[in-house]
Design a protein that fits this description.
alpha/beta; Rossmann fold; 7-stranded parallel β-sheet; 3-stranded mixed β-sheet; globular; binds nicotinamide-adenine-dinucleotide
C-alpha cells in the first residue's frame, strides 16, 4: 500500500462501509475503520484486511462518545472522513425517532466537533434518496424538492443542513453528500456483503432469505402500480459501483464546498424484474405473493445520474445480473 493519507470510515464495518474501505485502499489511501458494531460483525474487519492484502485498523467507538472521538482523531492523522455510521431501518425509526436523532444527528455533531479539534476539513457523507420524499418527477435529479416522510429521512436532511452550516462556519472545509439509491449486491469475492439481522426491511435481503428457504415467500406490496408489470420500480445499484463513487468523490473533494450528488444507475427495475433476474441468474425459485400497497410507498423512483458523471467522472458499470449473482454468492458462501 503506498501512503496517500488516512481515510477514516465511520461505520466502516457495515455493508457499504466495508466495500468502500476496499475501494479506498485500492486507490492507494489507508482506510481506518471506526465502528461500534451495533449492526455489524467484528469478523468483517478481518475480511476487509484479507481483501486489501494487509491489516486494516479498526477503532471500536461510538460516534456519540466525544472522548472516544477525541482519542480517535488524536491517534490518527486523518486526511478525510467518510461518514457512513448511522441507523437506517425506516420502521425502527418510526418506533424510536429519538434514538435515530441521537445516533445519526447528534452523532454527526460530535464527529464534526472532534474533526474541528484536529483540523480535519474533508467529509464524504452517506446521504440517501429518501431525502426526496415521494417522487414528484422522474428521473430524480438533485434539485428535486426535499421532504422527510419518516424520522430516518429526517435525520439525513438534518445532517445535510448541519453540513451546510459546518462548511460555512470555517475556511477550506469540503463536503460531498452522496445520495444513494438502492445499494445491493456484494463483493465478487463473497467475503463481504449484506447480512441484516432479523426480518429484512429491503427487497434484496428478503429475496435472498426466501431463496434460502428461511422465509416462506416474498410479499410484493402492490401489483397495481402504474408501471409496466404493476409492481414498484426502484433504482438498484451494485454496492461495488457505489463504493467506487466514494473514491471519485474523495478525489474531487477539494473543488467542492458542500455538494449533493446522486449515486444511482439511472435505470429502474421493478420488483418482479428483480425476482425473475434473481431466479434466472442463480437457478433458484423465489415464491412470492401479491399484497396490498403499503402507505407511503411510491410507484417509481430512479435517479438522474448525470451530475455524478459530470462532477465525479463516475457512473455505475454493473447491472442487475451482477447484483443478483453477487448477493446470492455472498448469502451461500458457507454452504458446502
Ligand atoms: N443500505 C442502504 O440501502 C442505504 C441507502 C441510503 C443510505 N444509506 C446510508 O449508508 C450508511 C451505511 O449503511 P449500510 O447499509 O452500510 O448500513 P449498516 O448498518 O450495514 O452499516 C452502518 C454501520 O454503522 C455502524 N454504526 C451505527 N451507529 C454507529 C455509532 N453511533 N457509532 C459508530 N458506529 C455506528 C454500525 O455498526 C454499522 O457497522 C448509513 O448511514 C445509511 O443510512 C444506506
Amino acid at each position: 500500500m503506498n501512503a496517500r493519507g488516512i481515510i477514516l470510515l465511520t461505520g466502516g464495518a457495515g455493508f457499504i462501509g466495508s466495500h468502500v474501505a476496499v475501494e479506498v485502499a485500492a486507490a492507494g489511501w489507508i482506510p481506518v475503520l471506526l465502528d461500534n458494531f451495533c449492526t455489524s460483525e467484528r469478523s468483517v474487519v478481518g475480511r476487509i484486511s484479507e481483501l486489501v492484502g494487509g491489516p486494516v485498523r479498526c477503532i471500536e467507538a461510538d460516534i456519540r462518545d466525544a472522548q472516544a472521538m477525541h482519542a480517535a482523531f488524536g491517534s490518527t492523522p486523518v486526511h478525510a472522513v467518510i461518514h457512513l455510521a448511522g441507523l437506517k431501518a425506516v420502521g425502527e425509526s418510526v418506533e424510536q425517532p429519538e434514538l435515530y436523532h441521537d445516533n445519526n444527528v447528534r452523532g454527526t455533531e460530535v464527529l464534526l466537533t472532534a474533526m474541528d479539534e484536529f483540523g480535519v476539513r474533508r467529509m464524504v457523507f452517506s446521504s440517501s434518496c429518501t431525502v426526496y420524499g415521494t417522487p414528484q418527477r422522474l428521473p430524480i435529479d438533485e434539485s428535486h424538492p426535499l421532504s422527510a416522510i419518516n424520522p430516518y429521512g429526517q435525520t439525513k436532511l438534518d445532517i445535510e443542513r448541519m453540513l451546510d452550516r459546518w462548511v460555512d462556519a470555517g475556511s477550506e472545509r469540503h463536503v460531498c453528500s452522496l445520495r444513494y439509491f438502492n445499494p445491493v449486491g456484494a463483493h465478487a469475492s463473497a467475503l463481504i456483503g449484506e447480512s441484516p439481522r432479523g426480518i429484512p426491511n429491503n427487497l434484496m435481503p428478503y429475496v435472498v432469505k426466501v431463496a434460502r428457504g428461511e422465509l416462506s415467500e416474498l410479499g410484493v406490496f402492490g401489483g397495481d402500480w402504474p408501471t409496466p408489470d404493476g409492481t414498484g420500480i426502484r433504482d438498484y445499484i451494485h454496492v461495488v459501483d457505489l463504493a467506487r463513487g466514494h473514491v471519485a468523490a474523495l478525489e474531487r473533494l477539494d473543488s467542492m464546498r458542500h455538494e449533493r450528488i446522486n449515486l444511482g444507475t439511472g435505470v429502474g427495475a421493478s420488483v418482479l424484474e428483480v425476482v425473475h433476474a434473481f431466479e434466472r441468474v442463480n437457478g433458484v425459485k423465489v415464491p412470492y405473493a401479491m399484497r396490498p400497497r403499503r402507505a407511503g410507498d411510491a410507484a417509481s423512483a430512479f435517479a438522474d445520474a448525470g451530475l455524478a458523471e459530470r462532477r465525479l467522472g463516475w457512473r455505475a458499470r454493473l447491472g442487475l445480473d451482477e447484483m443478483m449473482r453477487d448477493s446470492w454468492a455472498f448469502a451461500t458462501r458457507d454452504d458446502g
